[in-house]
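Check my protein:
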Amino acid sequence: MTEKEEKEIETLRKKLYQNYKEKHLCDDVVKLSQELDDLLNKAFFRKKRSNHHISR
């Protein structure tokens, strides 16, 4: 393997690792935003229900 090939491999490894980290970060963000949406929906429905009882 030439020095040039070794450098290319190293560069590709770094890019791959960076993409891997970013993908995981992205997955975490998606998961967290889904959890947040769920919590907001639950709170919203709870609030709606409690308002519904008051109006009766």
Remarks:
- The chain has a mean pLDDT of 88.
- The CA atoms of residues 19 and 25 lie 10 Å apart.
- The helical segments are 3-55.
- The radius of gyration is 24 Å.
